[in-house]
């Protein structure tokens, strides 16, 4: 048995889950001739109190000491689970031309938490130029990631508007006339929204554009300034909304959950050859670059904001007294609590102790919302956390083929280089497998049938059309040789909720393909 497989089993045993009043559940890998069988094993030898959970799709083998729950999924069941969150969009071509530097994008999600705490957004700017793509990784619940995914792109779009456009929108609101649409969203049918609180979100967005009008500056923000302003303003609004008096209990509860949970965010804005990426936290964005000789390279566009980044450590040390240097990061976490060192929400790492106590004291039933006041040791000079992003600018070249934005659930499993290699390989396979519809002479149905069988035998029929699905499949199912192990993939997909988080995080991936021809034409014409 390989070292990797052995370590997987040992890790499973160490991280086993204990069922209430029964025993211990862990994963096991059982060699069966030349085939490896992945199973979940329930052992009766350990009796400890813990949370219980139900097991579905189980085929049970009983013995005196162990019960084996074999989670066997067919390839079609695996595909259904992996592809449930697929989203893709191709840019409309007019008169045989595509003036947009974005050719298409493909996205997908796979949950580990229930419900999934990751969110994603994609939209075309209607009052300004460009497209935006965002990935949001929630923690302590999905509430903050949900709110940020709904609101942040609007804040950025408003920050980019001309004074005249802002005045037109404000006048329409004052006169109770329809407001010009700001964004055209590209959403998955299952994407959820906080419909109950949409009106409040709009009112606070209006207060923001009124603030921009009061600045009385023209031409306004640069794109970098707009993204920074939008991130900071939204985080400020999240903090203020939970402090404001609120008679509606549902809206009050949503505001509490949003503020006391958290989310990291990575947003890309693409306008012609201009690419800006704003990042807060440990989501990541990289470019896949194809050189003239056909080789591929990786260009990182973000830094992970956490305890492993020297710039972040120095930044926090500058912002706090020297007496706190040894307590800022404990066990590689901010104040021993949080992995990312930048995030939206998480007011318990931004507010004073007194403000936290005041807000929670005046809130009813916070326990039911899973909100508790916890002040970590050595909490002396808040805020310790910021939502201010780092913004990277890159001028697109024809050799820049695609952009990958993903939550850390992907990057924990695959390196930057591996991701680019997988996307590049997938592109090459798709190009090879485009059906040839033009034949030099007529063909009969038998010939077409034989071609289809050949394609199926080569595995073409099972290829993921969505590149994000392809990446997720490799992230959770790859063996030590970088190949997808169907047994491991099935095991990872059928882990019970309480166990899944030990092996994989929520994963959200968006891949944006660029139109090299449009980019080349830009440089030719200029």
Overview of the molecule:
Pfam families: PP2C. Belongs to the PP2C family. This is PDP2 phosphatase. GO terms for molecular function: [pyruvate dehydrogenase (acetyl-transferring)]-phosphatase activity; metal ion binding. It is a single chain. Strands 8, 9, 10, 11, 12, 17 and 18 form a seven-stranded antiparallel β-sheet that branches. Strands 6-7-20-19-13-14 form a six-stranded antiparallel β-sheet. The chain has a five-stranded antiparallel β-sheet with strand order 1-2-3-5-4. It contains 16 helices and 20 strands. Mean pLDDT is 83; it is low at 1-69, 436-441 and 457-462. The chain is globular. With 526 residues, the protein is of the alpha+beta class. It has one domain (75-436, 443-525): 4-Layer Sandwich (Phosphatase 2c, domain 1), CATH 3.60.40.10. The N and C termini lie far apart (60 Å). It has helices at residues 3-14, 75-83, 143-160, 163-174, 198-215, 223-243, 249-260, 310-319, 353-361, 408-411, 416-432, 445-457, 467-477, 486-493, 497-503, 516-525; strands spanning 17-18, 24-32, 35-43, 59-62, 66-70, 87-90, 102-110, 118-125, 131-139, 183-185, 262-271, 274-280, 284-290, 296-300, 329-330, 333-334, 344-345, 390-395, 400-406, 507-514. Strand 8 (118-125) and strand 9 form a beta hairpin.
Summarize the structure.
One of its GO terms (molecular function) is [pyruvate dehydrogenase (acetyl-transferring)]-phosphatase activity. The protein is α+β, with helices and mostly antiparallel strands and 526 residues long.
């Amino acid at each position: 048995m390989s070292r990797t497989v052995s370590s997987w089993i040992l890790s499973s045993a160490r991280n086993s889950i204990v069922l209430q009043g029964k025993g211990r559940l862990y994963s096991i890998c059982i060699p069966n001739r030349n085939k490896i069988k992945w199973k979940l094993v329930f052992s009766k030898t350990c009796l400890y109190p813990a949370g219980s959970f139900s097991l579905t799709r189980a085929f049970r083998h009983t013995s005196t000491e162990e019960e084996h729950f074999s989670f066997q999924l067919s390839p079609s069941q695996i595909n259904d689970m992996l592809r449930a969150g697929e989203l893709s969009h191709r840019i409309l071509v007019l008169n045989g031309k595509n003036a947009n530097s974005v050719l298409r994008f493909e996205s997908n999600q796979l949950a580990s938490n229930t419900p999934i705490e990751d969110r994603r957004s994609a939209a075309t700017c209607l009052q300004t130029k460009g497209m935006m793509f965002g990935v949001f990784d929630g923690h302590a619940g999905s509430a903050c990631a949900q709110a940020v995914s709904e609101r942040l792109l609007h804040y950025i779009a408003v920050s980019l508007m001309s004074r005249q456009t802002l005045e037109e929108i404000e006048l329409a609101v004052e006169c109770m006339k329809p407001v010009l649409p700001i964004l055209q969203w590209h959403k998955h049918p299952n994407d959820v929204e906080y419909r109950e609180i949409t009106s409040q979100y709009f009112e606070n967005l209006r207060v923001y554009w009124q603030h921009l009008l009061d600045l009385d500056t023209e031409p306004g923000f640069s794109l970098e300034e707009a993204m920074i302003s939008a991130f900071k303003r939204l985080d400020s609004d999240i903090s203020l909304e939970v402090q404001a008096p609120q008679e509606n209990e549902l809206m009050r509860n949503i505001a509490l959950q949003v503020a006391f949970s958290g989310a990291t965010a990575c947003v890309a804005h693409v306008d012609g050859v201009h690419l800006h990426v704003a990042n807060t936290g440990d989501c990541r964005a990289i470019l896949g670059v194809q050189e003239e000789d056909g080789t591929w390279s990786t260009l990182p566009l973000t830094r992970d904001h956490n305890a492993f980044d020297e710039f972040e450590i120095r930044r926090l040390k500058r912002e706090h007294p020297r007496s706190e240097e040894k307590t800022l990061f404990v066990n590689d976490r901010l104040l021993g609590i949080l992995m990312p060192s930048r995030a939206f929400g998480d007011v318990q790492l931004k507010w004073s102790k007194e403000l936290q106590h005041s807000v929670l004291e005046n809130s009813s039933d916070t326990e039911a919302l899973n909100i508790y006041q916890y002040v970590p040791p050595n909490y002396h000079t808040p805020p310790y956390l910021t939502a201010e992003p780092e913004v990277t600018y890159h001028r697109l070249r024809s050799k820049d083929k695609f952009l990958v934005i993903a939550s850390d659930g992907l990057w924990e499993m695959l390196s930057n280089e591996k991701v680019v290699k997988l996307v590049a390989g997938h592109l090459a396979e798709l190009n090879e497998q485009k059906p040839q519809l033009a034949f030099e002479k007529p063909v009969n149905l038998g010939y077409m049938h034989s071609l289809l069988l050949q394609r199926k035998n080569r595995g073409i029929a099972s290829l993921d059309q969505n590149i994000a699905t392809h990446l997720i499949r490799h992230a959770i199912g790859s063996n030590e040789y970088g190949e997808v192990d169907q047994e491991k993939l099935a095991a990872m997909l059928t882990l019970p909720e309480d166990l899944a988080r030990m092996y994989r995080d929520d994963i959200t991936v968006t891949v944006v393909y660029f139109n090299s021809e449009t980019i080349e034409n830009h440089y030719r014409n200029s």
